[in-house]
Amino acid sequence: MRHELIFSGIGGQGVMLIGELLCSTAVKEGYTVTFAPSYGQEKRGGRTMCQIVVSGEMGSPVISAADLLMVMDEKSLVEYEHLVKEQGYIIINSSLISIEPTRKDVQIIKVPINDLAQEVGNAKTANMIALGAVLQFLNFVDKEQVKTKVVDQFPPSKAHLVEINQKAIEVGFAYAASTK
Amino acid sequence: MGEKVFMQGNAALAESAIRAGCRFFFGYPITPSSELPEYYAAKAPQENLVFVQAETEVAAFNMIAGVASTGKRVMTGTSGPGFSLGMEAMSYMSAAGLPAVVVNVMRPGPADGDILAAQGDYFQAVKGGGHGDYNIIVLAPYSVQETADLTVKAFELAFKYRNPVVILSDAMLAKMMESLELPERITPNENYDWTMTGAKGRKHNVITTCGDGPIQWENYNLALQKKYKKIADNEQRWESYQVEDAEIIMVAFGSVARIALGAMKKARAEGMKVGIIRPITLWPFPQKAFVGLDQQDFFVTELNAGQMVEDVKLSVKDKERVSFYGRMGGMTPTPNELYEKLCELYRK
């Protein structure tokens, strides 16, 4: 068993955080997990991308053919769509991406990530909407386990934000289900 | 072994050093190594550590020389530009026989370059970037687990041979998060007969970096060479994967070895007989790994212009059988990219 995922976006969108969250959940489930982040020199606005490999054994942290690519912005789509395997998934943030992918041999799921976050009531939960949508297509971790792990992401002073982030995961998950 | 955790390469390295009894860290922050000083600074109060953010890497490298001369475990961590500034101290610490551990988390050069993964500091670490006839033991991990294990080993080797040791990591390995078992906590021996700890009640010790005439200094150099030969004979480390029946053997170290493993797996699935030799010590280079492999082709792959190729050519019988493919500037090959290169070689 081997699952390869790529999440990509712009610095500040929280792409790394959801990658780490997913990975720490998978580790808890006993999988061998490699989380390989990559980002530019800019504090905000630069490219942030992470490659996630979940398997039973250690392998390459660099991905040739991902099972799933989640892109938050247009540039990420252009740069990484070639790294998805045939019949793999590309989850596109249709709130910010107006172009169409060139790939015709993959399954495209469009999710208005930022708009859904606004509806949930906090624009900053966009990354959790994205994570929820991703979870719809993964079979190695359970949504409820990930939601439990959200608690660890916030210090006690920000504990009031846990619930809305968990809700955002649900909203993203449900939206992705409706596209099937 | 200790507890199982999910940790970033740099954090695992710093935690393992603390567990290995390294209470002193001096450094100047530079991406992609900054989590090392950050970790030490954060843990300093509760772990009773000594942490100084030096004004430059030049100062930090000389600070570790000072602590190493007292027989205590000490470390600095930096990336290419800072490692270059430390070269003077590397030469001096080698001459003085100071057991300091230096981490170089490689990023692409020359100069500022970028902050992504690269291996262009191979020559500088392995062939000696400072002046004079000296060698540094260079350890190259390829996973977060091995980063932790080799950190413990680095201190052991440094004190065993009274020689500086470099841990050569790279931006990918350092930023990567993986699950690992942390090493056990130890209290190292800090009582040696050569240290600078005050001469009250004993003969005074001399640690020198300066010759007393050419005859004496040649003898000093000869003694160093004798030590280097002993290290080269005893400390070669590597891992071989499926070389027994291989027709092409990939040679790769650090994070690229991981990508090579991916390529090998794909090649094997297609019926191609491919193996890997992964050097773990870059100096001494594991020449012993190549003994008896006279009929194979060697395919070296690195994140540089082919710096390790020279050492591979010195280790094999037929230099013509060694080929190379690399990426630079922070670019990394995918497993499929290396697989395509293997196919080209295989067709020849």
Overview of this protein structure:
The complex is a heterodimer of chains A (180) and B (348). Chain A is of the alpha/beta class and 180 residues long. Chain A has one domain (2-178): Pyruvate-ferredoxin oxidoreductase, PFOR, domain III (Pyruvate-ferredoxin Oxidoreductase, domain 3, 3-Layer(aba) Sandwich). Chain A contains six helices and six strands, in the order βαβββαββαααα. Chain A has helices at 15-28, 74-80, 113-120, 126-135, 143-149, 162-178, and strands at residues 2-10, 32-39, 47-55, 66-71, 84-93, 107-111. The longest helix of chain A is centred in the last third of the chain and has 17 residues, at 162-178. Chain A is globular. The mean pLDDT of chain A is 95. Chain B has 348 residues and is an alpha/beta fold. Chain B folds into two domains: 4-199 and 222-234, Thiamin diphosphate (ThDP)-binding fold, Pyr/PP domains (Rossmann fold, 3-Layer(aba) Sandwich); 239-347, 3-Layer(aba) Sandwich (Rossmann fold), CATH 3.40.50.920. In chain B, helix 1 (9-19) runs parallel beside helix 7 and helix 3 (57-68) packs parallel to helix 5. The longest helix of chain B has 21 residues, at 214-234. The radius of gyration of chain B is 20 Å and the shape is globular. Chain B starts with a strand and ends with a helix. In chain B, 51% of the residues are buried. Strand 2 of chain A pairs antiparallel with strand 8 of chain B.
